[in-house]
Task: structure prediction
Amino acid sequence: MNAIVKLSRRDFLKQSTLVGGGLLLACYLPFPGAVAADTAVPFAPNAFLRIGSDGSVTIICHKSEMGQGVYTALPTIVAEELDCAWEKVKIEQSPVAPEYAHTMFGSMVTGGSTSVRSEWQRLAQAGATARAMLVAAAAAGWKIDPAACRTENGAVYHPDGRRLSYGQLATKAAKLAVPPQVALKDPARYRLIGRPLARLDSPAKINGQARFGLDVQRPGLLVAVIARPPVFGATLRGFNADKANSVPGVRAVVAVPAGVAVVADGFWPARQARALLEIAWDEGAGAALASAGLRQQFATLAATPGLVAHRAGDVTAALERATVRLEAEYEVPYLAHATMEPLNCTVDLKADGCDIWTGSQMQTVDRDAAARVAGLQPEQVRLHTTFLGGGFGRRANPASDFVVEAVQVAKAIKQPVKVIRTREDDMRAGYYRPCWYDRISAGLDADKQVSAWRHTIVGQSIMAGTAFAGMIKDGIDETSVEGAADTPYAFPNLLVDLHTPQLPVTVLWWRSVGHSHTAFVVESFLDEVAHAAGTDPVTLRRTLLAQQPRPRGVLELAASKAGWGTPLAAGRGRGIAVHASFGSYLAQVAEVSLEKNGRVRVHRVVCAIDCGRVVNPDTIAAQMESGIAFGLSAALHGAITLKAGRVEQGNFDDYPLLRLDEMPQVEVHIVPSSEAPGGVGEPGVPPIAPAVANALFALSGARVRSLPLTPEKVLAALAKG
Amino acid sequence: MITLTVNGKKYQVAAPPDTPLLWVLREELKLTGTKFGCGEGLCGACTVHLDGVATRSCITPLAEAAGKKVVTIEGLAVSHPVKQAWLTEEVSQCGYCQPGQIMSAAALLKSKPKPSEAEIDGAMSGNLCRCGTYQRVRKAVHRAAAAPKGGSK
Ligand code: FES
Ligand code: FES
Result:
């Protein structure tokens, strides 16, 4: 079926190459039954849009849908400028092609909370140029000035009231030249942007029809699981597969660079057989790794000066002059992304081409990596992006680990195969949020103002050793210091420095990247400073943000909506944190209580966000709820630890995620703004951990400087007073 | 051969009797709406109804499902108040956990048509959602409970 569709598309392309300057590319349809017939596609003015003679509008989405709502937000931008009927919009996922490269990164990427920010102009133009061509087609027929026409709901209107639908005009519009640049709508006339439109992917997602990578079906598809090295950097010495091969349904047991692959008719026999493998590994130096030792190593480094990431004034002198000096050490652990859908990838490799189905956030990088393993040209590899059962950065791996290993297996067995990771495989295979250790000090002058701020950060670089290494400047990986080196607070003397130890544990961007750690340290310590100065934490921040209207705005909005300063119910404490990331400004106020056993409960979170212009306010609210839940999982529960080189966690019993009964009531307040849009997928995460830790302190006097805020740590901090 | 009744249809399944029901549904019957999240009964992504009871299919051997009525997300009518409430409240994000959430909620409302907060906590806290849709899950359960009765199984 797929092959037939592709063939006919190719033929169609041959006959009508670049009709209307357009492109027709084989798109992946994550919704079953949504295959559009080529004959109904006469007008394709650019890579993002097709209008059928039946009036159907297909918008090609080149960003991966992983829950953040791009399959709705991006089409909204196109449809707004096109003036089409929203109910008629259909979505297709784009293939990998240069037209779909990220406007900043030059290859296909969904990440960095950039989709709306980076695509608004391009997609608005895509819709507006198509509209201009449809208007021109209608005006030519009516022999009137195009400027006299207006458009609404998928039709062009003559001043006398006559109307031609986009479907009627499509064939004619396709014969016109594509205008280079057209004027965009006045935002005052927006009909779709700014409204809480329903997600276009919701119906498929409540009916079990949305196709995730794990759901891909192919004729003759086999399933493989891989036994991976138990220790980072270990290599395979040998294995005995006799017992594994005796399991009914097992087809092959093969060594691949990623480990030993067990291939079977289905997941269950593959998994059963893998448990029977006897494998000898050369564990190497990685076997000595332990979290306790790492912590010691990091703490020692933190006591020495690192590479300077940001310097203003003279911190040393200011600290010496200070009337009050504070110093503290903070730490956060490795974290797993733990996407709900475990990593997986399906590969159909032939001598002259390769099809790959997976949920990727970095399709070009993954495709090129697959081509290298397969020994093909990148153009011979077709990567089909399915729905992603969560991404959070894990499916944006410069090393393409989950794609590379699947191509290795397909190459070894010469049959179509789906490689599935169990939850334990997924959690133990590395690419974690780095663990960090920070030493931070501040000085207050005689007026109780912050005169010095010194922050030393220790942790692994995410970009080092990857294709992104070129972005590391003078030894500073910006993702290591973001949120600290670029603090909006007016510290007259500021020094942020960095140590970047190298370790065999692989690390990766984890929803909000460096901010997930720096916000906790900076905002917790600022709270300590406020208490030491005897100043209210909101007042102190307001003073330090006097010249920063946007962060100050969310601070004040969150404080007022949360009733900052008003009495709380007995046993409750309130804490606040402010943090800017990915072009958006956030403040969150958390309300917590503490159980006798040391367990922190979060009851209410008030979240204020200024993310500039808004496409869909409900998506923003949803992303704030989501970011807060994600951040709370880390604040209360999350830690990946190592012992004898082995990851100690494997499943949700020892790496717990937030559960429904722990979810606070979240209120989201959006600052009305006409500023350039900011990101929303990640910025909700960073402020919650410090807001909760600060609320815990306000309630109990316990200052916990290490995440997660486990009952043991809370009780220990309480005992210290 | 084991006879399985899924969404009202009878199937003859050749898989070994200890194969988890989840993999039979997904790989043999191609009913991929039921998801794999943990394989250990810890996340709820694989929840189906077994004779009306919410059950983790990843730890339910095929043999145990024989002779019982299995209902999966594909077998729950689109008009079901829980599915409709899920749409109205815009619960789904990545959507991966949602079939399990919906099956748990539907089973809850069958036994407790007007659940208390504590009953919702009890029935729904075993369904993990990494996207953190819990606030909307709770609202949608309340909405479905308030919906007029009838029309669905
Ligand atoms: S997959 Fe069955 S409970 Fe997680
Ligand atoms: S919607 Fe993504 S895991 Fe629940």
Observations:
- The two ends of chain B are 28 Å apart (CA to CA).
- The first strand of chain B starts at residue 2 and ends at 6.
- Chain B has a mean pLDDT of 96.
- Chain B touches chain A through 57 residues (CB under 8 Å).
